[in-house]
Amino acid sequence: MRLANHGGRAVILTSDSSGFDLEAASGGRFGPDLPSVYDAWDDFVAWASKASGPAVAIDRQALGPVSPRPFQSFGVGLNYDEHVTESGFARPELLPPVFPKFQSSIAGPFETVTLVPGGRTDWEAELVIVIGRHAHRIEPGTGWDHVAGVTVGQDLSERTTQLQGPAPQFGLGKSFPGYSPQGPWLVTPDELPDRDDLRITCELDGEIVQNGRTGQMIFSVADIVEKLAEIVTLHPGDVVYSGTPAGVGYSRQPERLIQPGEVLTTTIEGIGSITQHFVA
Ligand code: ZN
C-alpha cells in the first residue's frame, strides 16, 4: 500500500496520479490526517486491504510530509562504510550516532528550501523509516514489525553549524526550516522489491552525486529500530532518517555545496523521488 499526505488529508494511492480519501472511504473511522492513521495503524491496515472510494486526482504540489508531526524525529549518522571513511570518523560498532531532526525542519517532498545565509548546505540522501507500533525493549529480529513503512528523505546539513564548537552540533546543523524533506508517499514494506536492499541515488542539477544501496547499511532498518527501542520508546508516526551513502559534498576536494538556483532530486527504488529547489 502507498499512503500520501495530500493537502493535509490521508489518501490511499491507486496509481501515481490517483487515489481515494481515507476519511471519506471509511465513513470517518480513519483520518482525516496522517498522524491519526499512525495512531490506529493495526486497525487501519486490516481495514485498508479491502477498502476503496471515489477517485481523487493527485496534485504533486499538494503532497506534504508523510509524517508531518512526529512525536520524535531521529537522524542516524555514519551508517554506510564509505560515508564513514569520507567523513573521517571512526566506524560505529555497538550503536550509531543518533541526533534529533527537530520537528520544525520537516517539509514536504517538493518544497522550495531557503539556504542558510552564509552557510555551507550539503545533501544527504536517506531512506526514512516511519514507525507504526509502539516499541520499547523489543525482541531481537522484530524491528520491521514496528515499522509502518518507508519513504524518501534528505538530511540537509549546514556543515558550519554542524561541526563548529567543542562538540559537533548534528541536531541543530540539520534542523533549519525545510532541511528535513520527506515523501512523496509512505510505502509499506510488502510493496518493496527487497525491503533490506533498495537502490538510493541523489542528483544535483542533473549530476549523480550519490549512488548506493540500503543493503550497505552498517545498522539495518531492523537494527536501528531495535537499537533505538533499547533506550527510548518509539511512538506511531515517529520518523528515523537512516543515514546516507557516500558522495556528500563537504568531503570532496574541492568542497561542493548547494548553490541558490540548484535542484536536488533523491530517488529510492520502489518508492519514488523527491525534488528540492534552493533559493538564497
Ligand atoms: Zn544524515
Key features of this structure:
280 residues; Fumarylacetoacetate hydrolase, domain 2; five-stranded mixed β-sheet; 2 domains; alpha+beta
Characterise the protein shown here.
With 280 residues, the protein is of the alpha+beta class. It has two domains: 2-63, no CATH class; 65-279, Fumarylacetoacetase-like, C-terminal domain (Fumarylacetoacetate hydrolase, domain 2). Helices cover 15% and strands 31% of the residues. It is built from seven helices and 19 strands. It has helices at residues 22-25, 34-39, 41-48, 81-87, 159-163, 170-173, 221-229; strands at residues 2-6, 9-13, 18-21, 55-57, 63-64, 73-76, 98-100, 106-107, 113-114, 121-122, 125-131, 147-154, 157-158, 180-187, 199-204, 207-213, 239-241, 263-268, 272-279. The strands form three sheets. Strands 1, 2, 3, 4, 5, 6, 7, 8, 11, 12, 14 and 17 form a twelve-stranded mixed beta sheet that branches. A five-stranded mixed beta sheet has the order 9-19-18-15-16, with no helix packed on it. A two-stranded antiparallel sheet has the order 10-13. A hairpin with a 2-residue loop joins strand 15 (199-204) and strand 16. The protein is globular, with a radius of gyration of 18 Å. The termini are far apart. 45% of the residues are buried. The mean pLDDT is 97. The site of zinc ion has 8 residues, from loops.
